[in-house]
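non-reducing end alpha-L-arabinofuranosidase
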Amino acid sequence: MVKVILKANSDKGLINRNIYGHFSEHLGRCIYEGLWVGEESPIPNTEGIRNDVLGALQKLNIPVLRWPGGCFADEYHWKDGVGPKSQRARMINTHWGGVEENNHFGTHEFMRLCELLGAEPYISGNLGSGTVQEMQEWVEYITFDGESPMANWRKQNGREEPWKLKYFGVGNENWGCGGNMRPEYYADEYRRYATYVRNYSGNQVYKIACGPNDSNYEWMEVLMREAARFMDGISLHYYTIPTGVWEDKGNATGFGEAEWFTTLKKTLFMDELLVKHSEIMDKYDPEGRVGIIVDEWGTWYNVEPGTNPGFLYQQNTMRDAVLAAVNLNIFNQHNKRVQMANLAQIVNVLQSLVLTEGDKMLLTPTYHVFDMYQVHMDAQRLDLSYESPGYTFGDETIPQLSLSASRNKDGVIHVTACNLSHTDELEVVCQLEAGQAASVSGQVLHHTDFGAFNTFEQPEEVKPAAWEGLVLENNTLRFVLPPASVGVVAVNG
Ligand code: AHR
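Tokens:
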């Protein structure tokens, strides 16, 4: 049993809704097949965007969607992807699988997808192989409301009104696939490119610099020292790879207890990364103006047998669900610095929300976690104090419990909780200090098999259920988390 004190009237700041953001890259079957099937497809669609996937994603109220990459972004030339589709450049997606890219999904299609989702677009510009002019013109094309070559071209291509574009990334992974740059060199390049990412017609761009890969603290140090004043946010990428070995990352399914434990242990490193990167940022930005944008995170396993290794297609189990929940709790906890996070990736790539096969679609366990956690979006984080019991495997121990709590604008308190242990249930006794709780309800995501997943034959093998047995007495909330589970509780005043 663990005792928790929840200060119901505390205020630890707003949880930016963008923490619940997503990422879509021209990679494998994410854009083509996953999101976009084209107007002529027999798969029911809205202006080329498949209806089943769209409907599922709309339910999540996705706040922000990143596009077009990823590594693809630094090879993408946006002008290839506008105008009549029959005339769009056909090319090879050299980075991802060497397949044809016909550019049918471009700027107009992405902005339309965001409109249909009600999501803010987050575009990653090409610094690695594109020009300053190309980047400047993209922003002009999208946002300028007046007479100019790019605005006129946009109008010719069927869009009279400019769009609003808030989030713009000036390069991606420029320490790696985005040009293999040194931090000093990238910092200078960032400053140059970002200068021409202009605010047209009242549109205010939130500029995001390419930040470090996991624990590259030197990259963060140099970027903050040399370029902090030219940026609004800086990215951080961290993928959870069970083995930590790139050549054999471990499989998405069929894993054992040791892999379960190691994967969760590795994912908890996200907390240390945020602590340490925040410390560096505090030196150069003590007011906390620059946000951490965790614009790629999630699990990365070996691809499913028989699939194109360049497509990064993987299944998604209860392990991914618990891992997603743990990370979202961590991001909530770091709500002062973390202003956005984007799970990689939304459909059919890495830790997806949705998988498709032809005209079939399934929701992954990770999808259900994002559904359950929606309640934290734009809510006030609440103070929690507790000491988690340890979860020991072999001679290693990690915390068994991961928690987060917030109060929404209607005064409803939500607690999200995960039990990392694959063997032991956990009773939580949560004393609500101040406030008067009247009723409680909740949902729990659990399966007797910690490796359970949804298939196209059995798409509802893993899904949340009403959480029976929640008790609220004398302002004390009690619940029992089954092993390897995620729960959400709503406490009404
Ligand atoms: O998400 C897959 C890839 O991982 C992205 O393209 C890249 O930015 C990262 O290395």
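The chain has a mean pLDDT of 97.
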